[in-house]
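Re: the request from the purification team.
They wanted to know what the chain is likely to look like in 3D before they choose a buffer screen. I agreed to run a prediction and write the result into the notebook, where they can find it.
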Amino acid sequence: MIIGRIFGWILIGSAFLVVGHDLLQYLNNMVWHSILLGELWFIVNPEGLNLMQAIVQRYISPTLWDPFILSLLLWPAWMVFLVPGITLAILFRKRKKKEGRGFLA
């Protein structure tokens, strides 16, 4: 439970970092451009992006890369981090213990 919650909050924090980057770029250039997931991955680790493409196309399925993963790489990075982060934070949130509603309550 706690691992899912921590991972969710890490994703939410990453989304805010990406939005902060986009905001700084906007203040610098006065043009809003949200960095795409593929751009961010290429900036952080270009070899990893190329390796992932080769592995998916060669060993898993070429059709998985082109319509699915490629379209995901063209989404804004903040959205790719924020949506699963919120989902995980909600799914693995701390739940209040239910009060007993029986003969003893």
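For the purification team: The mean pLDDT is 91.
Please add any questions underneath this entry.
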